[in-house]
Write a structure and sequence with these properties.
About 65% of the residues lie in helices and about 10% in strands. The protein is built from 7 helices and 3 strands; from the N terminus they run αααβαββααα. Strands 1-3-2 form a 3-stranded antiparallel beta sheet, with helices on both faces. α1 packs antiparallel against α2 and α6 runs antiparallel to α7. The N and C termini lie far apart (about 45 Å).
Amino acid sequence: MKLETLNFAKYLFLSIVSVMKLLYLCIGILTNNIQDKNTMQQMAEMTIGQVLPPEAKVLMNHIYEYKKGVRSMILFTCNRRLETFATQRLCRQSIDYVVQPAGKDSINVYFGRRECLDAIRLFVIRPLNELTPEEDFILGALLGYDICAQCERYCERKTAASISQLAG
């Protein structure tokens, strides 16, 4: 079996188990068999957590970091099938975002402060691997990457670009 088929089967199984837990929870509430509200809350959270794919959990962690002020802008790359989930989640949280294709089956979702996203709209107009060294540097700075590492990366990319230009 392919790995994708196994992952889908696992996801489907966890989804079925989660639905069964929710039914059990609802029956318990309706019949007053579950008296403890903390138990109900824990069961609901556990069920929701099992249904979400790992990428969605990463997105929720990024949103948490953004809301706490850890970063001004975040780049989240995921499978296209999560686009609706991601954009609806960001809309519900009143977070601005930009979605761009990142490959055949994936997308880049930039989200955060409007000022940062306005800059993204202006210069990230092609695949990330085709950005100039300067554009790559700006993107890294906007994403809050270590500025010394960004300087080092810029110098390496600029030197490599100069060498290839001389050779070509």
